[in-house]
Amino acid sequence: MRELRAYYDTPAGTAKAVDGVTLTVDPGERFGLVGESGSGKSTIAMAAMRLLRPPARIEGGQVWVGDVDMMGASEDEVRRLRLAKVALVAQGSINALNPVARVRAQLLDGARDHGVRFNRREADSFVADLLEQVGLHAEVANSFPHQLSGGMKQRVCIAIAVCLRPEVIIADEPTSALDVVVQRQVMESLRAVQASLGAAVLLIGHDIGLMAQVVHRLGVMYAGRLVEVCGIREACREP
Ligand code: ADP
Ligand code: ADP
Fold first, then answer.
1. Looking at the whole model, is its pTM more than 0.80?
2. Does ligand 1 come within 6 angstroms of the Cβ of 71?
3. Of all residues in the chain, what percent are helix, strand and coil, respectively (each to 5)?
4. Are the C-beta atoms of residues 41 and 90 closer than 8 Å to each other?
């Protein structure tokens, strides 16, 4: 994105949420965005997917996902891109799991929504592969969400999000609701999935220590501005 500017129009007036942010995440790169609450991180994530709705408003700049101009593209084109190329994982994704469907069904539904059809054997190996990618045992496929821990559920969400091998993964506070040890495990799942896909990752969070372990570059947001971007030394993180 380049020179992105976003505002919220509220009864109390217009507030600037993103103030001229320029940011590129390359394929294969994990880019972390940290900053205090209200600094504009989520607005950036939503703008990147063209999911901002009133009272939010984008007033300037460009957003590209691969070679698609997200601001100029048609609704159809954006919808297709969101389905085929971009995965969104959020803190609230756990709540969007269907409480009365087994993990297996939810993973397959994720693929079916995209028009993928499997025979039984293909479905089995698809589910097993996905679960393995996020570090879950194959037996998890037969579980209902309430039988899983928070960290396992969040990994299922990651598996659903990446079931069609997206080129871009946007993860907005994916581990905030989890305890510290589990946060690391979920981050590691995200890292492993991304590495195997070669996807570009925009990871939003507030725990700099945790983020520094998984990202290549870390950007700091302050009052709608990207005020600092630094590379994370190889020694500080896993490959
Ligand atoms: P360029 O040859 O500069 O890449 P494009 O028409 O492809 O020209 O892109 C227009 C602008 O959008 C460029 O300035 C580029 O920096 C930016 N851009 C292109 N691709 C991306 C991307 N994947 N992520 C962020 N910004 C991008
Ligand atoms: P972060 O993700 O860093 O916490 P946000 O992008 O959610 O930041 O918010 C950026 C700014 O936009 C904040 O000042 C916030 O108060 C404002 N904002 C976010 N959502 C809304 C909304 N629905 N209505 C009005 N203002 C909003």
1. yes
2. no
3. 40, 25, 35
4. no
Half-sphere exposure of 112 (CA within 13 A, CB side): 11
Ligand with the closest atom to the CA of 39: 2
78 CB within 6 A, ligand 1: no
In Å, the largest CA–CA distance within the chain is 57
| Residue owning the nearest CA to atom 10 of ligand 2 | 40
The string of pLDDT tens digits covering residues 89-131 is 988 899 999 999 999 999 998 888 777 888 999 999 999 999 9
ipTM (interface pTM): 0.64
The token pair at 78 is 């954006």
Q: Tell me the ligand closest to 21's alpha carbon.
A: 1
Helix 150-161 / helix 180-197 crossing angle, nearest 10 deg: 20
The secondary structure of residue 232, as a DSSP letter, is P
Q: Which atom of ligand 2 is nearest to the CA of 173?
A: 2
Name the phi and psi angles at 56, rounded to 5.
-80, 150
Q: How far is the CA of 18 from the centre of ligand 2 (A)?
A: 9
Quote the CA–CA distance of 177 and 205 in Å, as a whole number: 11
Tell me, rounded to whole angstroms, the distance of Cα 8 from its chain centroid. 23
Give the Cβ contact number of residue 10 at 10 Å.
9
8 close to ligand 1 (CB < 6 Angstrom): no
Whether residue 2 has its Cβ less than 6 Å from ligand 1:
yes
The closest of 99, 100, 103 to 134, measured between CA atoms, is 103
